[in-house]
Amino acid sequence: MIGSTRIGRLTFWSLLTLPSAFVQPNAMFAQTPTVALTQIKVDGSEPPHFSNWDSCVRDLGGKVYDESAAKACLNSIIATKYFTGGRIATEPYEKGEISVVFHLEAPSLRVSRLDIKVPDSERERLMKWLSQDERTLRTGDVYQRDGEFATWFGIDNFYRAEGKHVGISETLRLNYQDKTAVLSYKILHGPSMPKEAILPPYSPPCKEIVGILNLTGVDDYVPIALIDSLMKTQAFSCFRRDSMMHDRSVLENSDLFKDVKYSVTGPPNYRQVYVTIVGKPLTVKEVSVQRYGAALGIPLPSPEEFSVRVGSVYSQSKAAADINYLKHVYAKPGKTIDVFEHEDLLPGNLLRVRYDVLAYDSTQFFVDGKEVAPVSSASPSTD
Asked: Count of CB atoms within 10 A of residue 229's CB?
């Protein structure tokens, strides 16, 4: 047990040098500490966690520290082809607790190709956008998992800033024989959305920033997507008093709600905007589904299958049930399904509700030409 043995010996000898009056009778028989935190630190290219190679590290957390289990975990990790060696260190955390750190050595894989499959005119703007973040991967870089996530996140932010939902399909190929990494991205363009405020380095820093936009006080009758379309203020946007006045005026004068409360708290570097709305019942006039990508090949569900129906009163909980239902209807092996909700306000305070369904290839991960099955179809590095 590297680290904790050393710490234990230092504690032991310090106790021997203290005057006997300060040595407690049970000090030499301290209980085995609990693992409060586990960490992995990699020197080299850390592979994605899709193959679940790190599950035994997570399993140590929250339990009494077991040195033999930790060593067995380290041995199982080194037995994969991803790592060449490693060691375990323990560090004091809080009283009776420790953190366990796995220091792993891995080969350094160079990015030999990074391909984003978009039209040339779009690629030029996208690559210029990504170049603003030094953490994104570039050809010739050593592959790093954090860099892979920064690249995926940067691509997603590019389209959000332009007001577009997209599906991002990534293929990652790690070759431990050639010491190379190849990353490919395919972009499925989906529906339009309100343009989102993006954090630095993709935008200038704000003197005052909206750290929190809290809509948890909005009741079930109120469509969140409709609120987003009415308000100028966004989470992580620059805080502007004219936007605040606009939002308050639009919400209070819309005749859609029984009561609106809009408040701002917090310091300039972390403004917190709280919106509380008591809604009026809004009748649904139209319900539709717009399909993108692989969803186009699957028939539309019957209107009777939806919780939000023509002539019914809208509710967030019913719409959430419809979104879960659509994810089930359009689920296919190897595909990621995203469903977005959109509302339009029609004359007479009637609602047009649309569900946008994107079905696109899930992330694929190859090691030396052999596909490694992902743990889930989540976006890369969200673990």
From this structure: 14
